[in-house]
Amino acid sequence: MSTDIYFNNNNSPTTIKTTRTETQHDNNLLQNSNASSSVVMFESPTVEVPDRTITPFKSVNINVDEPLDRSQFAVYEENLPEWKFISDSHKSERQEWFEKANGDFHNRVEEAYVALSDELSERHQFFEKEKKKYDREEQVMKEVRKFQNEKVKLNVGGQQFVTSKTTLTRDPNSLLANLFHTQRPDEDGSYFLDRDSTYFRLVLNYLRDLKIPQNALDDPRIMDELMQEARYYNIRDLLKLRWMDLPVVTQDELYSLYPLSRSSSNNREQTIFNLQGKMLCGLDFSNYHIDPRSDFSGSNLENCKFDNAWFGFDFEHQVNFSNTYLKGVQFPDPHAERTAPGKI
To answer: Which of 102, 115, 171, 297 has its CA 20 to 30 A from that of 84?
Structure first.
């Protein structure tokens, strides 16, 4: 009884037990061969090993959200059976084939390790960046929560209000934002403000939401009181809020509506301006003779130039500047002859 090993067309070994007869042919084979009773024979004189160029760890467009297949880590262990097969199949007449197959195998293992290492390195770098980003956001949120949790008690004309430093410091130039630097709290921890509390709720809500309810905007009495509070607390954006959505008048439109007279400056006819509730920011009224019956009430006149304009005068009328926003407006010098009383 002997064991013969054959390779089929798929290069896989097949072991067949056979019984040899004591024939002359067998004796001749035994005499002419140094092989043992176990003879290894091959169907083909050469065995080709498929060229493997693709590794299971080729890293292309890595999706870091997809978890790694940890079975990929056992690169050597997975390929060990193949290596053992190659090693066991080695014979002296197969030395060249064995060396090539053995080298190709180890090259594939090395490439797989390199690809896996590159993928792990990319994932590590990505998560390091994400961790730093998360740490920064977490620190910011901690500071925000700490700041917001610092409650502040206010005593406005005898009525208590509770708010946060975030709300009070929304306008950094306001009196409320600087309250903590200019005043010490009372024994109960509250800051006292000697103001009427009727409209302070609207002031706080504006600082929280940066808007005023429409019913308050539509009520001239409420807006007058609110503007007075805004001036006291020096909340500039609240002061401007009343005049933010007005129809805009440009310089060209002003000249079109009220053309300048070509006569000399002393003999020009006076112009009656009816510009109520308009956005007139930055307009230049130089060389106009403004009739005292003119009305600019409810308009935004921020940075307008009246310093080179002539204001007419009579005892019955005054230019109406009531409820206007006059920040940055340039008027004539109070003692100049261009000046006339106006209703502001």
So the answer is: 115
